[in-house]
Structures are given as structure tokens and as C-alpha cells.
Amino acid sequence: ASILGQVFGVPGELNQMAGHFGQLYLQAYSRDQELEADMLAVRYMSRAGYDPRALESFFRKLRQEVSISQRLRGRPDEDPADNIMSTHPRTSDRIAQAIRLARVPPNADPRLGRQDYLARIDGMLWGDAPEQGVVRGRVFEHPDLKFRFEVPPGFYLSNSPSQVVAYGPDDTTIVFNQLNQKDASQVSDVRAYVAAWGGGRLKGVERLTVNGIEAATGSARINTSEGTRDVRLVAARFARDRIYRFLFLTPPGATAKHSEDLRRTTYSLRRMTDAEAAAVKALKLRVITVNRGDTAENLAAGMPMESFKIDWFRALNGMTPGDALTPGEKVKIVIP
Q1: What is the pTM of this model?
Q2: Long-range contacts made by residues 315-318, C-beta under 8 angstroms, separation at least 24?
Q3: Same domain, yes or no, for 317 and 257?
């Protein structure tokens, strides 16, 4: 159960909503088990005719992606609990050791398969699938359910099948999800639902109207594994069986500072028109040929990310700062 679940005694599905406070850290496998996994990967790649040293470039790209995600969250020096690179670090020495211990003869002419690989991924979905909602910078849009909202400047949105989380300055967090339809259909009054949430510990419960949508809100101060937090719940009813919820979590010293921005997030929640929903497109990978005069910087500038464009471009293409492009080579970019 999450910390909020322990404090409020809320049911399991609400624990999922705020579970990032009570997440258990992934249990790291022993080094022997990790080495065994690497050895098996080396054997499988060698038997398929590939160069097992490509494992090193794979993990380098993964480290680059993790680094970007941490900086987007404003926590560049933190190892997230669910970060595979913090629980299972792979270094050049580790990969070399796995190759040596796997005792497989080196392939005289190892298969790279780069052209086949690039042909297969050209046009592939990158990021969110529209049926699970799409993050565009600070905006989350769900074309199937036809709603959208926007988080404040400085927040980083992360989408998953069960909830959307926005990480912001001063350890401020926004969690958004949907009450399951069966339970939502049994809620006769949204204000009463909010008043009863968490065992009735929310204070100042009041009704709201958010862009024509019936809603209610209440707040409390709680103790969590990450310290004392002010928590505010906003529940908005879109249909008889559809209730969406924001959970705003702030350290007490930062609540007043971010109050207005979080209020704007609440009132940014609205229905989408049919035309708006139809206009939401998934991002895709596109493989292009480098032309004379192209640089990593100018190719990255055209990608639709809000920040760290050059870092995303380098991560996609296994590049490091200072690496130059060669006319005629193939590179990956992200397009709308």
C-alpha cells in the first residue's frame, strides 16, 4: 500500500493514484545474476551472427535517455527508483567481462543488420500511442476520451497506462487519473465523494465548476516517506461513469508559491472538440539521409520536443558531443 493509503485508509485503486510516494525500490539482482544475464545475451547475439559488443552501445543509449529524463524532472543527480541503470549498471568493463566469460568464438564477419533495422523502424511510433493519450510539452491530450489539460511551466509530464504524473519545481507533483467506471457510476454526488475520500480527512471540501464540468475539491496535510506534504484532491465528472482526478502534492513551504499555478492546471481541464481530437497525431521515427551542411543541431531543431532536443537526437543516434555527421549516412529523427 502507498503511504497515502496508509494515512487515509483509502482503497487499493487510489493507492495506485499516489503510489509514487510508497513505491518500493526495485530489488537489484546480485552481480552474479546480472553477469549471467549479460553472458546469455552475448551468446544469443553471437549465435545469431551479431557483434556482442553492440551491447555496450545499447546501454550507452539507455543511459543517455535516463539522463534526459532526470534533467526534465529537475533532478539530474538523482537515481530514480525505477531506473534500470541505477539497479543494473552496465559499463564497458562489465560487457567485456561477459564476452570473455561467455567463451564464444568471435565472429570473423559479424552481422550488423543496420540497414534492415533502420528500414523496419522507419515510421515507427515514438512515445505515446493516441489511445493512451499524448504528451505534447506541458499539455496532455486524450483524443479518444476527448479531454485535455496543461501543467505549469517547469513541469515534466510522464504518461503511463494507469496515470499521468507531472514533476515540478520544489518537489511539487501532480498526479492525474480516472476513477474506475464501475465505482464512478455509483457516485451520486461528486462533493460527497471528495468529502469521503481518504476516510473523510480532507478539509475545506467545496463544489467547483471547471469549464462547465461538475467538480469538487478538498485538501489535507499528511506525512509521507518523503516528508510532510500538502495534498489537494480535485474530482471532475465528465459523464455518469467517468470521473477524472487531480492529486496535487506540495511540501508545505512551497504550497503558497505554487497555489496559483496548480489552480490554473485545474481550470485547464476541458473537453476537446471533434476537430481538436482528430488533429492529435502520434509522434513517429523517421530515418533520413544526411545532406551536405547538415549538423546534429539543425536536424535536432526540427524535432517536436519542448526541450533537450540535441540531447534526444544524440541519444537516438548513439552520438556524443563533438561527433560530426557524414553526408550520406542515415540518422533517426522524430516527427509529428
Answers
A1: 0.73
A2: 315/61, 315/64, 315/65, 315/68, 316/61, 316/285, 318/57, 318/60, 318/61
A3: no
- All three cell numbers of 58, joined, read 545499447
200 in any annotated domain: yes
Cβ-proximal residues to 295 (8 Å cutoff; 6+ apart), any chain: 324, 325
> Does 264 lie in the same domain as 161?
yes
Q: Model confidence over 163-206: pLDDT tens digits?
A: 999 999 999 999 999 999 999 999 999 999 999 998 899 999 99
Cα 268 from Cα 312, distance rounded (Å): 28
Whether residues 319 and 271 fall in one domain: no
Percent of the chain residues topping a pLDDT of 70: 84
Are 147 and 27 in the same domain?
A: no
Whole-Å CA distances, 206 to 128, 198, 209, 237? 34, 16, 10, 14
- Per the DSSP assignment, residues forming a β-bridge with 335 are 284
What pairing do the DSSP bridges indicate for beta strands 173-179 and 242-250?
Answer: antiparallel
Q: What is the pLDDT of residues 135-172, one digit of tens each?
A: 988 999 999 999 999 999 989 899 988 899 999 999 99
